[in-house]
């Protein structure tokens, strides 16, 4: 009976009373495949949580982790402490980033990175003598993690409500409208806005592609009004959109880029922020200058950084970064026939190796938590996908064989049939 098996593990984003006793117990993984405790195999069409871009059990990453554990297992980088993997990783990530004179601040994940970027944005204007520039603008349907700033600028209503007041001086604008962004800047007063946070392709909020020209237009509005343009590349980076940071698909120069997930192949927890030289400069200029009194215990963790260095090697050696773009048309093509399904309102695909399948209003009305039901139905077909507010997302590892994309399309088609069958 749900609720009576008595798990002590409280899962994120879970209806625990329903989950308790009905968990999917994962046991092993290999490449793009995951096996449960009963030996059933599933195609990992979501790369865990859009993060295992190299697939699972990557030998080079495992070896790097083991070697680093045997050398310097753990030490902080607070103050003047450092370690070679952290230094090398920051240098490589800075060189790869489309950011001028970049510095890299390392964290434990995406939410950490977003709140780091938000605090840095506010601190920047304090140093610039513009302390009234506090406001941070996000977008509807945006997802930026679960910390204070990330929750406050998130645009998924179910996630932002129920906590009482959020951070002051934050707001969201319709995700696809440049006039709405411009109006919001004027409503607040542009001289009071510190930053605009933008996922190149919105992920958890629905896999929503930006309208043509939106990203460039938003960056231009930010520049015009002295507002920092901050890219949340937590999902889009490391090949998901076919480039290192995803944002290279657009003709913009961000002031900061938050990253996580794929940086370590999703294998160990790691994130960070690429920060432009203009923002970082006061902190690096001369002793006695400003100090960023911020950072998690595991910032620059040597084992996580060694894993990431090995992951970067594999991305490079196996030419995996461009695959996110090379396969985007193939993924869109295998999902295209789903548009004919009576339960499907739309298929959102074509930019990077990720896609959203939105259910019709009728399909959602017919089944309680239809996205969750569709996710479970796909699991019965041997395909792991992720529920979205209106349907499901797919984001397989970049290592997926072109032919295996068809398994995703077929599995979802069968799952949709099963979902509709329960309506009758
Ligand atoms: N930003 C985006 C765009 C994300 O997708 C996520 C996680 N799904 C986060 C931030 C938060 O990252 P984390 O879960 O590592 O804190």
Features:
Aminotransferase class-III, about 15% strand, seven-stranded mixed sheet, pyridoxal phosphate, Aspartate Aminotransferase, domain 1, Aspartate Aminotransferase, domain 2, about 425 residues, transaminase activity
Secondary-structure blueprint:
Layout: H1 16-19, E1 26-30, E2 33-36, E3 41-44, H2 47-50, H3 59-69, H4 84-96, E4 103-107, H5 110-127, E5 135-139, H6 148-153, H7 157-160, E6 170-173, H8 178-188, E7 193-198, H9 214-225, E8 228-232, E9 256-259, E10 271-275, H10 277-285, H11 302-317, H12 323-326, H13 328-335, E11 344-348, E12 355-359, H14 361-366, H15 370-380, E13 383-384, E14 386-387, E15 391-394, H16 405-421
Parallel strand pairs: 3-13, 5-6, 5-7, 7-8, 8-9
Antiparallel strand pairs: 1-2, 2-3, 4-10, 9-10, 11-12, 12-15, 14-15
This protein binds 4'-deoxy-4'-aminopyridoxal-5'-phosphate.
Word description of this protein:
- Keywords: Aminotransferase, Pyridoxal phosphate, Transferase.
- This is Aminotransferase class-III.
- It holds the Pfam family Aminotran_3.
- It comes from Conexibacter woesei (strain DSM 14684 / CCUG 47730 / CIP 108061 / JCM 11494 / NBRC 100937 / ID131577).
- By secondary structure, the chain is an alpha/beta fold.
- It has 2 domains: 138 residues, Aspartate Aminotransferase, domain 1 (Alpha-Beta Complex), CATH 3.90.1150; 256 residues, Type I PLP-dependent aspartate aminotransferase-like (Major domain) (Aspartate Aminotransferase, domain 2, 3-Layer(aba) Sandwich).
- The chain is built from 16 helices and 15 strands.
- A hairpin with a 4-residue loop joins strand 2 and strand 3.
- Helix 4 crosses helix 11 and helix 15 packs across helix 16.
- The site of 4'-deoxy-4'-aminopyridoxal-5'-phosphate has 16 residues, from helix 5.
